[in-house]
Design brief:
mainly alpha, elongated
Length: 229
Amino acid sequence: FYTKHYSWTPAESLFYTIDTGLSIGTGVDGVEDTDDLGRIFTMVNVIVGAWVAMAGLSAIVEYGIDNEQPAGATELTLGARVFVKLTTKLAFCVYGWIAIGVAFGVFIEEWPVIQALFYACTQLASGGLQAPSRSSVSLVFTAVFAVVGFPVFAVWSADVAGAVFHDHTRLVARARSRKATNTPRSDKTDSDWSKFLVEELTARGVLDDSTLDDIKQRFLNNSDHEKRE
């Protein structure tokens, strides 16, 4: 559309499609909408891009859930968990991609190292605060750099955030657990209360079979550990 409507080069059209579709909005002089038809098309592109981004974020959340610490695994401190996330293969992919962006900025755009690093990091984080030049090489590189690097950076960021907020979520869960189990005694036994609690949480969709199995496994692991002691 952009190539035909604005007579832009394919590189300019590719850059603008990705720049607006991922809501980066870097902006390059001369590569911008100048009439209502173009603006309408770009609005649709931005909205559809947002939908795709939301679908991607949902996939990222599922990725984080599927890769949670397995039952019975040794608990790590906050610093250790963050260090692990900063030294994974995925993390080094992000570092390598940033290095490629820095190399592009230094050798192609002839920016200082800090400016090139600024370009690489803000592109990956969808900030887009440093615009490239209007050459075909720069525009195509920036488009590919963003469309490949953004999802990888997002997955890694979710990984690191999960490690940071792990303690908070566990504290909240423990507080709710204490509140749930600290109920006034009645004619019913503890086993009756436990059974009712599981049934009620399952009925409300809070507890699924997978989570219940994980909790049972943790209970069995703790019981075995206490017996050995």
